[in-house]
């Protein structure tokens, strides 16, 4: 029987109290386990590939704080660098050398980025880049894809993924129709639909923003030619192409999807990994576009804690670790073994299943597949996923608490961790 043996009394107690203090007892909806049942596990500490909850249970972690823990949680080099930085203060609110260092690393790594602005979250990066797209083109409409998530700013909460999809929310109340009407949507991997939107809205579309590999509808890679097709279509219509690489940046490759797939957008958003576990987001791209950002240009955007020395330090150290030779080959090898194993075990147990990985990002759907877009993803048996998630939790494996999320590995995950995860899956797949 799944979901009976885990000792979680302390988690239950703390979460019960949290629900009286914070909406849903969480600081972010997807953490609430709403779609996988049961109550969330309250973490006590994290290290490497592992997390420990307040009841002392240890788990192999495949969420990694939703991406930032790509070098493993609390990497000793990052912690050491933070201790040293702390001696000099936590926040300056003034220029500091560390911003130059991280900016140079991002510019050197990401093909589209000639200049960059640091902010404090992926949401901030995406909302700022949209304002910049509109400022640069003088156009108001944007195209996004169903199931893609670009943070919680109003204009992106239209057919969004991640927590919105997980909770099955209608597109959020509080978003004025005047705002939502400027957001056009198309199915992911459907160039024809994008072509039609451009024809129906001539000279009105500022640009197209997408997760170049979708993680917020579950894991959905681009079909061959899709990214190149978008690059061509946006050029043809004098619109901008924006890769939201908040999740994929420095995870799929050191230069992100745009380096791995050889398609260079006009603008890119980043987050998660570049903060190494501290709050950092960024947007960047062509110099002629970034020149519009205040105070160099008229497009306003600001932030009290943007570029703070602690977050810059964690980001710099994390990217130094990632740019070591062999890191992405290691992530690819360990993650491919994981997902190929999970799929084989699921099929051996008689379940329809599909999925895959690219570098340290993976996903599994309980459906025959293939999954090319959000509609396909919604055919997945979410009840079966719920049983799988709970069963794996019981076995000490911590997976993203939603079918509409991706999974993440790290440089700290070992072959033994993968073996243990596959052993657990053999037990659970036979029970759901
Ligand atoms: P944040 O504002 O959460 O830092 O970033 C928003 C964002 C933007 N773009 C992409 C592609 C993203 O994946 C995200 C955030 N991802 C979710 C997980 N799928 C964050 C987890 C959460 O919402 O708690």
Characterization of this structure:
With 432 residues, the protein is of the alpha/beta class. 37% of the residues lie in helices and 14% in strands. The chain has 2 domains: 9-62 and 326-429, Aspartate Aminotransferase, domain 1 (Alpha-Beta Complex), CATH 3.90.1150.10; 76-322, Aspartate Aminotransferase, domain 2, CATH 3.40.640.10. The strands form 3 sheets. A 7-stranded mixed β-sheet has the order 4-10-9-8-7-5-6, with helices on both faces. A 4-stranded mixed β-sheet has the order 1-2-3-13. Helix 2 packs antiparallel against helix 11, helix 3 (97-109) packs parallel to helix 11 and helix 14 (382-394) packs across helix 15 (415-429). The radius of gyration is 21 Å and the shape is globular. It binds ligand KE4. Ligand KE4 is lined by residues 28, 30, 66, 121-123, 126, 149-151, 162-163, 211, 215-216, 244, 246-247, 271, 281, 405.
Give short descriptive properties of this protein.
globular, 432 residues, binds ligand KE4, 37% helix, Aspartate Aminotransferase, domain 2, 14 strands, single chain
On the 0-100 scale, what is the average pLDDT? Answer: 96
Backbone structural class: alpha/beta
Q: How many whole angstroms does the radius of gyration measure? A: 21 Å
Taking the alpha carbons of the first and last residues, their distance comes to 10 Å
Regarding CATH, which class of the largest domain?
A: Alpha Beta
Supply the number of helical segments: 15
Shape: globular
Enter the CATH topology name of the largest domain.
Aspartate Aminotransferase, domain 2
Q: Give helix % range.
A: 25-40%
Which molecules are bound besides the chains?
Answer: ligand KE4
Number of domains: 2
**Uncertain stretches:** none
């Amino acid at each position: 029987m799944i979901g009976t043996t885990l000792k979680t009394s302390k988690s239950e107690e703390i979460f019960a109290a949290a629900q009286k203090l914070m909406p849903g007892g969480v600081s972010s909806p997807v953490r609430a386990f709403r779609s996988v049942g049961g109550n969330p596990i309250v973490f006590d500490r994290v290290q490497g590939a592992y997390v420990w909850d307040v009841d002392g249970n240890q788990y192999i972690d495949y969420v990694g704080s939703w991406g930032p823990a790509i070098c493993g949680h609390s990497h000793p080099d990052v912690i050491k660098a933070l201790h040293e930085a702390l001696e000099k203060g936590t926040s300056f609110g003034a220029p500091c050398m560390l911003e130059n260092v991280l900016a140079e690393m991002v510019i050197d790594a990401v093909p589209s980025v000639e200049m960059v602005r640091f902010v404090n979250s992926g949401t901030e990066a995406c909302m700022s880049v949209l304002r910049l797209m509109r400022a640069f083109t003088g156009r108001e409409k944007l195209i996004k894809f169903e199931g893609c998530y670009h943070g919680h700013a109003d204009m992106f909460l239209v057919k969004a993924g991640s927590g919105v999809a997980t909770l099955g929310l209608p597109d959020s109340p509080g978003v004025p129709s005047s705002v939502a009407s400027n957001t056009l949507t198309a199915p992911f991997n459907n160039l024809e639909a994008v072509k039609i939107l451009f024809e129906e809205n001539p000279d009105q579309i500022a640009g197209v923003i997408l997760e170049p590999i979708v993680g917020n509808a579950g894991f959905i890679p681009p079909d061959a030619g899709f990214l190149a097709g978008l690059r061509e279509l946006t050029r043809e219509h004098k619109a901008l192409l924006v890769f939201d690489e908040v999740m994929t940046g420095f995870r799929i490759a050191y230069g992100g999807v745009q380096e791995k797939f050889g398609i260079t957008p006009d603008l890119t958003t980043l987050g998660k990994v570049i903060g190494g576990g501290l709050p950092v987001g960024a947007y960047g791209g062509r110099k002629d576009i970034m020149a519009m950002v205040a105070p160099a240009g008229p497009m306003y955007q600001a932030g009290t804690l943007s570029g703070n020395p602690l977050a810059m330090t964690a980001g710099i150290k994390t990217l130094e670790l990632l740019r070591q030779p062999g890191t992405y080959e290691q992530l690819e090898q360990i993650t491919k073994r994981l997902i190929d194993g999970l799929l084989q075990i699921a099929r051996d147990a008689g379940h329809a299943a599909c999925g895959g990985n690219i570098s340290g990002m993976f996903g599994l759907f309980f459906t025959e597949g293939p999954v090319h877009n959000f509609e396909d993803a919604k055919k997945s048996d979410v009840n079966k996923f719920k049983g799988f998630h709970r069963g794996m939790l019981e076995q000490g494996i911590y997976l993203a608490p939603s079918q509409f999320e991706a999974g993440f590995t790290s440089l700290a995950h070992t072959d033994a961790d993968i073996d243990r995860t596959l052993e657990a899956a053999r037990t659970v797949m036979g029970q759901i």
